[in-house]
Amino acid sequence: MPPILFLLASAVFAQGTSEFVLSGLLPQIAADTGVSLGTAGLLTSLFAAGMVVGAPVLAMLGSKLPRKLALLAFLGLFSAAHVTAALTTDFPLLLVTRAVAAFANAGFLAVALASLPALVPPDAVGRATSVLLSGVTLACIVGVPAGTVLGQYAGWQAAFWAIAAITAVAAAALATTSFDDPPATSPVYREWRVLAQPRVVTTVVKGILVNGGTFAAFTYLGTMSPSTAWVPVVLAVFGVGSFVGVTVAGKAGPKILKAGAAVLTVVWVAAFFAAQSLPGLLTAALLTGATAFGVGSALIAKIVTTASEEAPRVAGAIATTAFNLGAVVGPAVAGAVVVDAAHARAAFWVSAAFTAAAMVFRAKK
After folding, report:
1. What is the DSSP string of 91-143?
2. Span 74-96, mean pLDDT?
3. Which end of the chain, N or C, is more open, meaning fewer C-beta atoms within 10 Å of its C-beta?
4. 37 pLDDT band (50/70/90 cuts)?
5. Distance CA 8, CA 39 (A)
6. Which pLDDT belongs to residue 148?
7. To the nearest 10°, the Cα dihedral for 128, 292, 357, 329?
8. Do the Cβ atoms of 282 and 234 come closer than 8 Å?
9. 139 touches 235 (CB < 8 A)
């Protein structure tokens, strides 16, 4: 794998940490900004929604720039948003910074994913995708727990400063590298016609459903813990599993998709019964993380490779939007089913329903 890919993954690590770390800092933010805990939760939902909207919009805008310049611009905007957030206790302004950060994150990920076919041979795109997305899984293992501890001891602003610093270092390193930027063969807006192709639509829908199932369960995984002390442990175990999953998926390639949704459905159902005890919950967190992110990352790679031949500039945006639509829809549906903390395990049934629905769709050749 080219070294530049690991630089891109380090930026994704900072972005993944930013997306998920607020779950452990919301009480402090709510107290400092003078809003309720529920209102503070808008910071997380707005970020996911911003990713959905930002991916296609910024992929279009970013297509007018060389890819390296677009990536650096998005990283600069992302870092600046976190610096601004660290300097304010005004909640409306904090909301604005989260929206800006989400847009910048979406634009960066869309361009980075679209760049993979130009960075590696066609048969290595799947592995390259797993390396890039490993930044998200490492964020769950290291970034989120570390950011939470830092925020608890030094104030939530310290976590934002740290994310801004990591992003700035990644941008500085990226600025020193060379970057292949093949010219577009047609106006970028025409590339969206690739969504009229059944094989692309099928893969996108499967990606939304599988990732919807992943985030439906992940959202309530901490709630299933027997005590608050076990919450970071359970989430970290899920992160370890997700890292293993994307690594295996990168080596296995598209083969993992042949029975991936079926296996994942069984795993979600088994997790419901296993999670009644702490050892069972830890085992379920590990296995669901590995299986869900393994299948999910393979689908993201499939979207990129399927769409990139005819839509090299928007293939990454399509993949990013599919991933984040799942992150929005999955928790929303699970929230309607999980009536209280005692019934948090019901989220696993929602996850199983999402992946069972994905089994209906057969990817076209």
Report:
1. HHHHHHHHHHHHHHHHHHHHHHHHHHHHHS-GGGHHHHHHHHHHHHHHIIIII
2. 95
3. C
4. low
5. 33
6. 78
7. -90
8. yes
9. no
Residue carrying structure tokens 């590696």: 120
**Contact between residue 132 and residue 256 where contact means Cβ atoms under 8 Å apart:** no
CA separation, residue 185 to residues 114, 199, 306 (Å): 15, 22, 17
> Could you give the CA distance from residue 73 to residue 36 in angstroms, rounded to a whole number?
34
Q: Are 243 and 141 in contact (CB under 8 A)?
A: yes
- Indicate whether 182 pLDDT > 70: no
Alpha-carbon distance values, 365 to 202, 203, 284, 362 (Å): 10, 11, 34, 9
**Of 308 and 298, which is predicted with more confidence?**
298
The confidence score (pLDDT) of residue 365 equals 45
**Cα separation, 120 vs 136, whole angstroms:** 20
Q: What's the token pair of residue 122?
A: 């066609």
Sign of CA dihedral 48, 11, 62, 114: negative
**Where does residue 121 rank: exposed (0-12), middle (13-18), buried (19+ CB within 10 A)?**
exposed
Instruction: Give dist(CA 155, CA 88) in Å, integer.
Output: 13
Q: What does the block give as tokens for 235?
A: 């989430």
The label of the residue with tokens 């689908």 reads 299
% of the chain surpassing 90 pLDDT: 33
Spatial separation of the C-alpha atoms in residues 235 and 35, rounded to whole Å: 26
Mean pLDDT over all residues of the chain? Answer: 85
Please say whether the beta carbons of 286 and 237 come within 8 A: yes
Q: Whose structure tokens read 């794998």?
A: 1
The backbone torsions φ and ψ at residue 196, rounded to the nearest 5 degrees and listed phi first, read: -85, -10
Mean pLDDT of 198-214: 90
pLDDT tens digits for range 258-290: 788 899 999 999 999 999 999 999 999 999 999
